[in-house]
From TrEMBL:
Family that this chain belongs to: Belongs to the radical SAM superfamily. 7-carboxy-7-deazaguanine synthase family.
Descriptive protein name: 7-carboxy-7-deazaguanine synthase
Natural source organism: Echinicola jeungdonensis
Co-factor binding comment: Binds 1 S-adenosyl-L-methionine per subunit.
Classification of source organism: Bacteria, Pseudomonadati, Bacteroidota, Cytophagia, Cytophagales
Top EC class for this record: lyase
Keyword hit for Iron: yes
Pathway: Purine metabolism; 7-cyano-7-deazaguanine biosynthesis
Length: 208
């Protein structure tokens, strides 16, 4: 099998980095987790803090067995697949293998591509820069909207109207604008209690 076919089938993936840390944000904040960051993103958020992930070709293609072996070398059995935009790839084989080895599988995605993979928790973080694929709304367990501008509250509500009823709804201040926006988010959540706040606690803890 050539490399392109292996990537198309999700048997090899461009791996930007993989590391064991503490999930800093969202519902699983505080949980030890093995992060698998795949290279490649076509969403183009202006405030993206992992712009180096955008170009998939910069990162080595790694077989899924090797990726899972890396995760198995740590105690925790929670994996977070992130990017870049991980749904640019077929995640069925990787997540199947992770689940066969006893992992809980989480994904963080902008939802901009067709869904794939077997996930226990789907964190959907829509971005203004590329429209989500409509299939993501029924998959999302958590809707996490990064607040960079005041118009992001309205943007958040537009997506909240489309997710499942039991989907968690989180507003998270964008790190560089946290000082300006956190107060607005606090006021918003107090007036709209169906929303909760997510903070990037890993940035306070100075961990990846
Ligand atoms: S979707 Fe994520 S990786 Fe892609 S540009 Fe936006 S913040 Fe960066």
């Amino acid at each position: 099998m050539n490399t392109k076919t292996a990537v198309d089938q999700g048997l090899m993936l461009p791996l930007m980095e993989a590391f064991y840390t503490i999930q800093g944000e969202g519902t699983f904040s505080g949980y030890p987790a093995y992060f698998i960051r795949l290279g490649g993103c076509d969403v183009g958020c202006v405030w993206c803090d992992v712009k180096e992930s955008w170009e998939a070709g910069k990162w080595p293609l790694v077989g899924i067995e090797e990726i899972v072996e890396g995760a198995l070398s740590y105690e925790g059995r929670l994996v977070v697949i992130t990017g870049g935009e991980p749904l640019m790839y077929n995640l069925d084989p990787l997540t199947r293998l992770l689940k066969a080895k006893g992992f809980t599988t989480n994904i963080e995605t902008s939802g901009a591509h067709t869904f794939s993979g077997e996930f226990d928790w789907v964190c959907f973080s829509p971005k203004k820069f590329k429209k989500p694929h409509p299939g993501i709304y029924e998959k999302a367990d958590e809707l996490k909207v990064v607040v960079f501008h005041k118009s992001d509250f309205e943007f958040a509500e537009t997506h909240a109207a489309k997710v499942k009823e039991n989907c968690r709804k989180l507003l998270q201040p964008e790190w560089s604008k946290a000082e300006t926006n956190t107060k607005k988010i606090i006021d918003y959540v107090k007036n709209h209690p169906n929303w909760n706040i997510s903070l990037q606690t890993h940035k306070f803890m100075d961990i990846p």
